Amino acid sequence: MNWAKGIDNTGRPIPNPAKEPSKDGVLIAPNESGATNYRSPSFDPKTGLLIVSVQDGYGIYFFKPEHGAYGWAGADYGVAGRAFLRAIDYKTGKIVWDHPIGDGAGTAGVLTTETGVTFSGDVPGNVMAFRTIDGTTLWHQAIGKVGNGPITYELDGKQYLLVGGGSSLYSFALP
Length: 175
Prior knowledge:
This protein has no helices and 14 strands. It is mostly beta strands. It has one domain (4-173): Beta Barrel (Thrombin, subunit H), CATH 2.40.10. The model has no long low-confidence stretch (mean pLDDT 89).
């Protein structure tokens, strides 16, 4: 991250003046899809891990004098970006594991379960199951772009995973 110089004593970012938009453009990290934004994270109390969908992304931001003296009037968001699921130890802030999920930005939320399985989606359009403790892929299924947070529910004693993919909802029975 380069748009802030640090955090002030109230917990707010301190903007980096060198990264203000300019006529020629300034390289900013992360871009608007970068870091983690609307994608819902999930916390696993057993492991103490916060699992987040993130993007290491870069964009060039510029302003145009005809749009005013200040502002983010333009941007090239797609300079570079790679998506990951990251497990963060909530006590230390250290990344415990990092699982690449594709180029660009991920759109799926994250769900952790009591059984040590984490569900999410990748950029190419798979719903995926990971071992929460180390990020190992346990299962995946191509369903189209996953743009929501998966949920589980129980019906008649059977547990299901429900997730949206493409323009459909998918329900998978869990063993």
